[in-house]
Specification:
- The chain has one domain (about 1-10, about 20-30, about 50-115): Alpha-Beta Complex (Spore Coat Polysaccharide Biosynthesis Protein SpsA, Chain A), CATH 3.90.550.
- Helix content is about 40%, strand content about 20%.
- It has four helices and four strands; from the N terminus they run E-H-E-H-H-E-H-E.
- Helix 1 (about 15-40) packs across helix 2.
- The termini are far apart.
Length: about 120
């Protein structure tokens, strides 16, 4: 079972999605490795009460014409560690942010879900 899923809705993010996935991979791998090390130093198993230290990223592409989904597919097929924990959901057109999150949630069976929006809206924090 996956403990954490990060959902990333995208539209025209071809130039950014590879870097975003790489950064997420580095941070999540470090976090879960650290949690595993802490459990081992306490002489406790990393898997306790059915909790496996694992994560995944679901990229929901909202019909990007720029090839965002192609970048994600290439990462998945490359065998590179960054594409290993990534799922891609492709939608036929720009259907909106809310429904993109829901499409991502439909793909996961997890303990925790984090919805990540890459950009801040202009003028908002």
């Amino acid at each position: 079972m996956t403990n954490l899923t990060v959902i990333i809705p995208t539209f025209n993010e071809r130039e950014n999605i590879g870097l975003v996935l790489w950064i997420l991979h580095e941070h999540l791998t470090a976090f879960y490795s650290s949690a595993d090390s802490t459990a081992q130093s306490r002489k406790q198993p990393a898997q306790q009460k059915g909790k496996v230290l694992s994560w995944e990223v679901v990229v929901v592409d909202d019909g990007s014409p720029d090839g965002t989904a192609d970048v994600v597919r290439r990462l998945q097929r490359s065998g590179h560690k960054v594409g290993k924990n990534v799922k891609l959901v492709e939608r036929p057109g720009k259907l909106g942010l809310g429904t993109a999150y829901m499409a991502g949630v439909e793909q996961v069976r997890v303990v925790r879900v984090v919805a990540q929006r890459r950009r801040q809206e202009q003028g908002r924090v």
